[in-house]
Design goal:
Length: 820
């Protein structure tokens, strides 16, 4: 028996030794793996918090590394969606991120229904995590033609939230012991949070009683329904919180204290943290391991090697980045037993947006110039990317308490639950706000991962890969739909910058081209052959079916959790917005009507000859530029019965022998029909009746087309002719289609009140005075000038600038100016 006990003791010692010597390495390894496979974060700034039907939503999308908030080196593609109340995606943009931010916009159609829309943004790589990690922002869109009902609803909502300054019902209160658990005999702090919004801003007082009905502590909630209480639980006793409302006492059961356990207490003194660790275990804190990370980035560790029951550490924060820091205590078995979040606000990291104006109080319809730059605490220029909105503050509700890029990246995106009015904690650097922010840390948990998942669960396979461009992929089969494992494909882009490449299919008959980056649309051709492309094609070699793969994945499940919501508390400003939007709606209707009744305008110009007009008309249809030679069938209407071969033989330098064409000084040319490559036997039955004109291109004139060394002949059909449809269509071995590229944002329109054609005759009462989606500050150009014109409205205007530096520091600026 003694031998068994001794053996067991030795095993425990060996196990403890293994844990203490290897556990730190395991933690470091897992955190490093998390950093290597870092999550991505997306943030979207919009020009306004709410809109009316018929308006435009202007936005700038930011994509960053979720750990250091620098430019992500994974994804280059971001999807931004606008979702209505029926969870239908009414508009979707696919954006390419050349830099950490890019511009976008949505046109709100007049026939849409009003309601609370959601703007959602994510990358394909982010789909490997829960959709709650996507950026989601609620955007009210109103029908201003029914203005009375909007104001009534807003007013009712406001009254429901503010009509009571005293409690009438039992409030919903949660209690959060510091570190996670109450432990008998150990002094603990308990975070308190009023859950329901209706009572969150009403001060609630209460006491904590033990099971003998003795008052052992008291508490009071402060702003945002946050409070704190202190308690030393005793063995054998339970504890309840008591709140009296309208002479009725309501009770809340506190979490039951553990007989043995650990307590992790942290006091945040700004430039340093006091970290206290306590236990009542018999072996004390021996082999207990304390580790801290910031968004997965390792910050601090301590392995206790003695049997002490408690210790206190002072940790300086002047070298840490800003943001939520996650402290976890592991026991000697490697299990997490206590956790605490702390917010680090290091003044050394401060970056300031500096804004200067050429006019302090501009007049209506006057040009205003703003100079924007970034400076650190020492006045040195900082590089980064920004976006700016200038809006009418009397019609657009603005609050520095609302979400912005700084509060989102540093706070809300890393915490469980929603932080209301997060800007409050960053508005001023005073002790009250720091204290309340620490209460937020007490009452919220880290949501990016749990230690049990990261330490002991097998890493999931990455299903959704980071996208770095567009792909064109698919597979080929024989005419009998049997796989072709040795075939060859060829991709041709026919846009302004033509491109052609060839690939063999894999063993499954699949092919994939890309990544490509192009905007808007691109005429595209995919060809395939059983073996390889040959100069003298055989019918058997072309008997191939091409099956394209959709270049997009189905949209993720729509979730309305973790949605950022605007403040709609100022009914006066919303009323002004509705009235102003209604006036804009009426002005636009009047302007359209007046445009139909313009006075006669006399334009004097030199009349072009009919021949010049015809040449310009044909050149516009020829996307490749100017031909070397051309035959216009309008000049040869009496030859419409001739075949294509007979017609092309009339062009200087072109020789036709039987069914073979050569160009003098070149060779056998490539043949195109309406800019789509074809074989000569595809078009040799065409007649002049179906052709509008034929162009021959040699040398430099042919460089638009791939493989153009032997020259190019391009046939253009007459409008309405269906030869291509009848003869090419989806012929075996070739398909043509239009590839959809990345979205290019429209340019924000604002009247130029100096330009006589800039719309100065139309009344200008815009609610968004200016939108600048991309302000890039570099070492070469550390300042940017933004110029725009004021409108007809004498009002106060808000300037809201958001962005992120190249070093990953989110920045935010809010200021106002008056138009006299």
């Amino acid at each position: 028996m003694l031998k068994k006990i001794t053996l067991g003791f030795i095993v425990c010692l060996l196990l403890s030794f293994t844990i203490t010597n290897n556990f730190s390495e395991l933690i470091q390894e897992k955190l490093n793996s998390y950093i290597d496979n870092y999550p991505e974060k997306v943030y979207v700034q919009t020009d306004k918090p709410y809109y009316s039907l018929g308006e435009d939503i202007w936005f700038s999308t930011y994509l960053v590394n979720g750990i250091n908030h620098k430019k992500s080196n994974k994804s280059r593609v971001v999807y931004v969606e606008l979702i209505n109340e029926q969870d239908s995606i009414v508009s979707k943009k696919q954006l390419y991120m050349f830099t950490p931010n890019t511009a976008g916009d949505f046109k709100i159609e007049k026939n849409w229904k009003s309601g609370k829309y959601i703007l959602r943004a994510y990358t394909n790589y982010m789909r490997n995590q829960d959709p709650d990690y996507f950026f989601k922002k609620q955007i009210p869109i109103w029908d201003v033609t029914n203005a009375d009902s909007i104001i009534t609803n807003i007013t009712k909502t406001k009254l429901n939230l503010t009509k009571n300054n005293t409690l009438k019902e039992k409030p919903d209160i949660n209690f959060y012991p510091e570190g996670g658990y109450l432990v008998n005999g150990i002094a603990s702090k308990i975070g308190i949070k009023v859950k329901d919004k209706l009572n969150r801003d009403i001060a609630i007082s209460g006491v904590i009683k033990d099971s003998d009905n003795n008052v052992v502590s008291s508490f009071k909630t402060l702003q945002f329904g946050l409070g704190i209480a202190s308690l030393i639980p005793q063995n054998g006793k339970n504890y309840t919180a008591h709140v009296t409302i309208n002479n009725t006492e309501h009770t809340y059961q506190l979490p039951k204290a553990l007989p043995e356990g650990y307590n992790l207490n942290i006091v945040n003194n700004g430039n340093h943290l006091l970290i206290g660790v306590t236990t009542n275990n018999s072996i004390g804190l021996k082999n207990a391991y304390l580790v801290a990370h910031q968004r997965g980035n390792f910050v601090f560790e301590k392995l206790e090697t003695t049997t002490v029951k408690n210790y206190v550490i002072k940790l300086n924060t002047n070298t840490l980045n800003d943001g939520v820091t996650h402290f976890t205590l592991f026991n000697n078995e490697g299990k997490p037993v206590a956790e605490r979040l702390v917010y680090i606000d290091n003044p050394e990291n401060n970056v300031h947006i500096q804004l200067t104006s050429n006019k302090k109080t501009p007049s209506t319809r006057e040009q205003l110039s703003l100079h924007v730059n970034l400076k650190d605490n020492n006045g040195n220029a900082v590089t980064g990317n920004l976006s700016m909105a200038v809006t009418d503050i009397d019609a657009i509700e603005h609050s520095t308490l609302q979400e912005n890029i700084k509060t989102y990246l540093l706070l809300n995106s890393d915490l469980r639950g929603q932080i209301d009015n997060p800007g409050y904690f960053f508005e001023n650097n005073d002790n009250k706000r720091k204290y309340l922010l620490d209460l937020v840390m007490l009452t919220h948990g880290w949501r990016r991962f749990t230690w049990n998942d990261i330490l002991y669960k097998t890493t999931k396979e990455t299903i959704f890969k980071p996208e770095r461009g567009l792909y064109i992929s698919g597979r080929i089969t024989s005419q009998k739909n049997k796989d072709i494992k040795t075939g060859t494909t060829r991709l041709t882009f026919m846009g302004a910058f033509p491109h052609q490449e060839k690939k063999r299919v894999n063993s499954a008959g699949s092919f994939k081209y890309g990544p490509f980056v192009f905007m808007d649309t691109m005429p595209t051709i995919v060809e395939a052959r059983v073996n390889d492309f040959q100069k003298e094609e055989t019918k058997a070699n072309r008997m191939v079916n091409i099956h394209l793969t959709p270049n997009y994945s189905p949209s993720p499940i729509i979730s309305r959790q973790s949605v950022l919501k605007p403040n709609l508390n100022d009914s006066t400003k919303i009323n002004n917005f509705i009235k102003q939007s209604k006036n804009i709606y009426d002005i636009n209707l009047d302007f359209i009507e007046d445009a139909r009744l313009l006075d006669e305008v006399i334009v004097t110009a030199t009349r072009k000859t009919q021949e010049e007009k015809r040449t310009e008309e044909l050149n516009e249809k020829a996307i490749y530029g100017f031909p070397t030679n051309r035959i216009d069938m309008k000049d040869y209407e009496n030859l419409e019965t001739l075949s294509f071969l007979e017609l092309v033989s009339m062009i200087p330098g072109v020789n036709v022998v039987n069914d073979s064409i050569t160009i003098r000084g070149a060779g056998s040319p490539s043949i195109y029909l309406n800019n789509i490559p074809v074989q000569i036997d595809d078009v040799n039955t065409m007649t002049g009746a179906e052709i509008e004109f034929i162009d021959v291109l040699k040398g430099a004139d042919a460089v638009f087309f791939p493989n153009s060394g032997n020259g190019v002949i391009v046939i253009h059909q007459k409008e309405g002719a269906d030869f291509l449809t009848k003869n090419i269509k989806r012929k075996p071995g070739i398909i043509d289609f239009t590839s959809k590229g990345f979205y290019t944002a429209r340019e924000f329109y604002a009247p130029n009140h100096i330009d006589p054609f800039g719309g100065n005759n139309k009344k200008d009462i815009r609610t968004t005075l200016h939108w600048e989606p991309k302000i890039q500050l570099t070492q070469e150009k550390s300042s940017k000038e933004i110029s725009f014109y004021t409108s007809d409205i004498r009002s106060n205007y808000a300037i809201k600038i958001e962005g992120v530096t190249d070093d990953g520091i989110p920045v935010y600026h809010f200021s106002t100016f008056e138009v006299d």
